[in-house]
Amino acid sequence: MKWLGTLLGCLSLVTLVSVIAGPVNEKCPLSGNAVKKDATYSVGFCCGNCQSKFTKNPGASIPKVKAAPINDACPFSGDPIKATANYKGDLVGFCCNNCKGKFEKDADNLIKKVKVARKTVNDKCPLSGKAINPKKTYTVAFCCNNCAGKFKKDPAKHIAKVKSTRSEI
Question: Within a domain: residue 13?
Answer without folding.
Answer: no
